[in-house]
Amino acid sequence: MATDQPPDELEPRLAVIVDALHRKGADDPTCPACGHAALELADETFFMQAITPGGEIAFTGETADGFEVAAMLCGHCGHIRLHHLSKLVRD
Ligand SMILES: [Zn+2]
Fold first, then answer.
1. Number of domains in the chain
2. Is residue 11 situated within a structural domain?
3. Residue 78 is part of which domain span?
4. What is the distance, to the nearest Å, from the Cα of residue 91 to the centroid of all Cα atoms in its chain?
5. 2-45, pLDDT tens digit by residue?
6. Is pTM beyond 0.70 here?
7. How far apart are the CA of 74 and the centre of ligand 1, in A?
8. What's the CA-to-centroid distance between 75 and ligand 1, angstroms?
9. What is the mean pLDDT of the chain?
């Protein structure tokens, strides 16, 4: 369960994401929707599912089409900012 207190030690996967956000200058905690400094990295990553032009969930064979995202959540207004994970952590 998420808490308002930062963990003593981030799990390695989250530490890589935090490092990439900092390295790329994308770690400003200011929410673009409400202006509060309340953006925090979600504990989990998510899968952004692709949709076909006909409105169906897209698959290649049995594999869902889409990409993994890291989410920054605003603790004040609930705004969600997403980062394409493989593009965020490369370089
Ligand atoms: Zn907000």
1. 1
2. no
3. 30-89
4. 18
5. 455 555 677 888 999 999 999 999 999 999 999 999 999 999 99
6. yes
7. 5
8. 7
9. 91
